[in-house]
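Milestone M4 deliverable, item 7.
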Amino acid sequence: MSKTIESTLSLAADTKLVKEHLATINMPAHMDAAKIADYKARIKRLLKEKDAVLVAHYYTDALIQELAEESGGFISDSLEMARFGRDAKESTLVVAGVRFMGETASILSPNKTVLMPTTEATCSLDLACPVDEFSAFCDAHPDREVVVYANTSAAVKARADWVVTSSIAVDVVEHLAAQGKKIIWAPDKHLGGYIQKKTGADMLLWDGACIVHEEFKAQGLLDLKAVHPEAAILAHPESPDSVLAIADVVGSTTQIINAAVNMPNESFIVATDKGIFYKLQQLAPNKQFLVAPTAGNDATCRSCAHCPWMAMNSLENLYESLKQGSNQVSVDRALAEKAMRPLQRMLDFSASNKLKVAGKA
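Output delivered:
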């Protein structure tokens, strides 16, 4: 093994360094502890004054997730974020994540105000699936059920028969395949390929990929595993097939967290956005979590295991959004009604699955 690889792996292996990184994540030079505390206090006051609740994704920075918990808000994956926002009693939802999450919140909660720290935060999967091109693709295959990932625009959702998140995608496709249905899947080709292998479904895959997960490389994982042979590999199914093939557990963000908490292993190599480390270390404080290597180091890679758009959410723009009522997300009512149908199917299917699991318990 080269000295460069060895030193990189040694750094990644130091849990103390990872924890120190998490403690300072999203803390620019001008944001010392006192300023952070001041921002948090002002945001909490505004949340109460505006009858608002903060809903954050696992991939946002630790300070945002911490604030969501401290203020009575919510942290989760996109499915549970959508469900929480819909059921929340507050009249305003502040969605810390990327734009499609704000759109989904607006669709599911048309009578609520939906704000975001920034509306510039998008998603490579969303960008990779323009509605005009996708609609033409669907029109060319009218015999197929259209299933799209949640990481898509409201317009693409409106063109679909089903919307799914990674936590229920396999179950939904398995359900459709059992009915003999052929499927169009968009936009993540890696997740689509994983689902196809798991279910044996007849699927046409759109050619999109996540810039974070596509950067994980099997050889990098194997090199890190050689240094930590006891570590289990946890991978999100948006990762390339070569990565999934060597993973001990493949699952959504919530499934990765559950695996880390429940598996007996003391250490884990985690192939998903490193924003998830906040919740991992909170729920399993005595375990070691290692960031899976990407195609490069720091500025030489496209994502460095952290979504650049998720990183755009900060205490500063969150505060300004709440204070000014800016960055409001709304979806045209007619479009929202069309998008609501496949979203509601997802929520109904998920609720039905939970009932089945509870009945077997």
